[in-house]
């Protein structure tokens, strides 16, 4: 997406694509609520503490299957639409060295007539043809790649921990009733309702705050701010944890917990997706973005399994403190990420510069 956008609104364009994830989260929650509510009404069952065996009716096995099936349809549409999309013009021109095809693809996308300029493609061949495992890449973009991979990794440790174990945290503070007081389908309904409420009030607004402000505030400021407030709110929940477990204070806990989701999305969850798509050379852009994303998924694995064992072994309070420390580390590694607001992709990658010094100047973390 970054290669089809102009530098003035590129951040909002990429962030808006990513923000559609928020509507997907909402849609998934709504589907889960409708399906579980329908099955609970059709097949009533006692709670687990009343009758452990009868609390899970045989028809409950269809609930998760129907929810997953609904998720398959958007995936099929995505596959179809992706097959219809042409390769980006920058890749076709700069990597495949086919200026004529690049012009034809851009003419189709933009619906304007464009002429190929092969001489400009030939002009950029020599000094920018370094590979991923070279000293030239390490010198120009090594710290950038470290910044994008580490921040995405650290973010997803905290972000996926919070998402996957919302029900455990909400049950621990009493916002959700204990599982034994519900039947299986009712538990699905209550968890889906709570998570959808969090998404509606904090997750989705956070995405669109990023879309609105990313080309004004800049990626660096939003990411640093997001990690900062995630850290503050995690410690605000963890340090006086007993205070939040009291019945009168549960709503306050939910509000602050929701704010961590808001600043995750009006913060690093969006910017860690945007920045790697802007700062690397065209022939390595997808590779570096993929490496950064893979690092994030590694963080998600750590978060998913780590929180599970940490919560059981250390308790919720200490686990929240650990997540606060993880977010603080995210602030530190954000200092390695360059600001790309208002700069062309060629300026950021050095592909359009006259020398390496120009590339270095344009890639500073804080704009001058």
From TrEMBL:
It is a multi-pass membrane protein. This is Major facilitator superfamily (MFS) profile domain-containing protein. Residues 344-368 are annotated as: Disordered. GO terms for biological process: arbuscular mycorrhizal association; cellular response to nutrient levels; phosphate ion transport. GO terms for molecular function: symporter activity. The chain crosses the membrane at residues 12-39, 62-81, 197-214, 220-239, 251-268, 319-338. PROSITE patterns: MFS. InterPro entries: MFS_dom, MFS_sugar_transport-like, MFS_trans_sf. It comes from Cucumis melo (Muskmelon). Keywords: Membrane, Phosphate transport, Symport, Transmembrane, Transmembrane helix, Transport. Residues 348-357 have a biased composition (Acidic residues). The keyword Transmembrane applies.
